[in-house]
Amino acid sequence: MRAKAIEKAIEGGRRILCVFPRYTSAFGTFEYAYPLPDGVRAFMPPQALLLIAAYLPEHWQVRFIDENIRPAGKQDFEWAEAVFVSGMHIQRQQMNDICRRAHAFDLPVALGGPSVSACPDYYPSFDYLHVGELGDATDELIARLSSDPSRPAEQVVLKTVDRVAMSDFPIPAYELAETRKYFLGSIQYSSGCPYQCEFCDIPGLYGRNPRLKTPEQIIAELDKLRECGMTDSIYFVDDNFIGNRKAALDLLPHLVAWQKRTGYVTRLACEATLNIAKRPEILEKMREAYFATIFCGIETPDPDALKAMHKDHNMMVPILEGVQTINSYGMEVVSGIIMGLDTDKPETGDALLSFVEQSRIPLLTINLLQALPKTPLWDRLERENRLVHDEGRDSNVAFLLPYDEVVNSWKRCMEMAYEPTRLFARYEYQCDYTYANRLKVPPSAEKKSWANIKRGLIMLRNLFWKVGVRGDYRRPFWKFAWSRLAKGDIEGFIGSAMIAHHLIVFARAASSGQQNASNYSIRLREASVPAE
Ligand code: SF4
């Protein structure tokens, strides 16, 4: 909690405009699926800015704008006394653009989040840089704005040394977000990961010893998300849900009790290392808590490559067996895959496609290797003089194989993996063999409500019209639709067809060169950004 001395010093009220930048189009944000459900406009509420909003002094006024939903306009800037921005590397241009617009109104702009925490020198035009997590830098920023809300003469860099314990975090100000306009809800229990995969910036940014909220905090947050209208699916954006296995086991009974109390209307999802497959005691509880999806960074099916990137923990069980085990608890695996590794060979693409078929994982974010600053990979490539600073390229890595060969192999994998017939076959399997293993829950009053039925009908209408009538992969779509509907599986059909639509459209754009091949940095863990 904020130190008392600082709390006392904050007398004047301020009006703070928190602006979350637009995402660059990405595979993992499902944007092509948004027109199918009713009113969805953005991916997930950003944890970090909503946390900061909740942490500000109570008497300060806060307005939150997610530019994925609507841009901050003249009225917002005229209302504000200061602007807060947060984001990832991939949103760099958009963050700078918000700063430029705020400066047109002579407002001081503070930037926090993972990108500035890793690379403060990317952002010379901001007035305040908040480097690191919620802590003494945040208090200092608040104190400075409280005493003087004008723009400082030169940039002020504030670095957190003393972090606020996560168990002291306030509940993010979900009430400021238009929660119904998000594809997924987000929540965070822990931060950090004990492993040290070569390409990953998480251990460097957030530490190897996961920090934790309490189960009671999570339950209060879930209740608040429900109050704010976010009920369908909630994603634990923790870097690794089993980074501290004991903590995961402590939390799960609380989640089970919460689901029982609220009628199992909310599906849960998280990110975890694949070695979760070795933990039946965790998987069983996750099934009971109604987890539907786990994102696993499988990265590659090649054991030599896993070893080279220090991700040996993926081999604690044979990968296909691990995926099957998770499926047997009713949870679909979503997988991250990286191409362009030093261990890749000309036949890597074929091996990957065969893995996709065998694993029957429908959704794999297949990205070209991208070196992120503050990672062991970045340091190694820098030493080897293999970092390429050319924004026209799909990756900043000089691959060992010829660049065009790697990019073409990536395009071919995207095209083949998301060919509609193949993709629907994988979803068919998931519906029959994975979703079928989920907990059978009695339909709650909320699920049977007219509002919920109406939403389902709207989604069905949109799918039938936009894909079944006007789409260009009608034959595999209808084959899948008839098969699911004949089995009475409306829920499986809607959920799968909606995501499949995004994957098919995005993959086509990617394989024809219209989408970037290195959106790795914004895979689903994007919202895991307590670093404000
Ligand atoms: S890639 Fe995943 S397992 Fe590896 S260090 Fe990062 S968060 Fe941890």
Tag the structure with descriptive keywords.
532 residues, globular, 20 helices, alpha/beta, 14 strands, disordered C terminus, six-stranded parallel sheet, binds iron/sulfur cluster
Entry summary:
Helix 8 packs parallel to helix 9, helix 15 runs antiparallel to helix 20 and helix 16 runs antiparallel to helix 20. This protein is α/β, with parallel strands linked by helices and 532 residues long.
Describe the SSE topology:
Elements: H1 4-9, E1 15-20, H2 47-55, E2 61-66, H3 74-79, E3 82-86, H4 92-103, E4 109-112, H5 114-118, E5 128-131, H6 136-147, E6 156-159, E7 185-187, E8 190-191, H7 202-206, E9 211-212, H8 215-227, E10 233-236, H9 245-262, E11 267-271, H10 280-288, E12 291-299, H11 303-308, H12 319-328, E13 332-339, H13 348-359, E14 364-368, H14 376-383, H15 403-417, H16 420-434, H17 445-448, H18 450-469, H19 474-486, H20 490-511
Parallel strand pairs: 1-2, 1-3, 3-4, 4-5, 5-6, 7-10, 10-11, 11-12, 12-13, 13-14
Antiparallel strand pairs: 8-9
Helix pairs in contact: 8-9, 9-10, 13-15, 15-20, 16-19, 16-20, 18-20, 19-20
The structure holds iron/sulfur cluster (SF4).
Iron/sulfur cluster is lined by residues 193, 195-197, 200, 202-203, 239-240, 273, 297.
Question: Please, could you describe this protein's structure?
Answer:
This protein has helices at residues 4-9, 47-55, 74-79, 92-103, 114-118, 136-147, 202-206, 215-227, 245-262, 280-288, 303-308, 319-328, 348-359, 376-383, 403-417, 420-434, 445-448, 450-469, 474-486, 490-511; strands spanning 15-20, 61-66, 82-86, 109-112, 128-131, 156-159, 185-187, 190-191, 211-212, 233-236, 267-271, 291-299, 332-339, 364-368. The protein has 532 residues and is an alpha/beta fold. Helix 5 links the parallel strand 4 and strand 5 (128-131). The chain is globular, with a radius of gyration of 23 Å. The two termini are 15 Å apart. The structure holds iron/sulfur cluster. Iron/sulfur cluster is lined by residues 193, 195-197, 200, 202-203, 239-240, 273, 297. The site of iron/sulfur cluster has 11 residues, from helix 7.
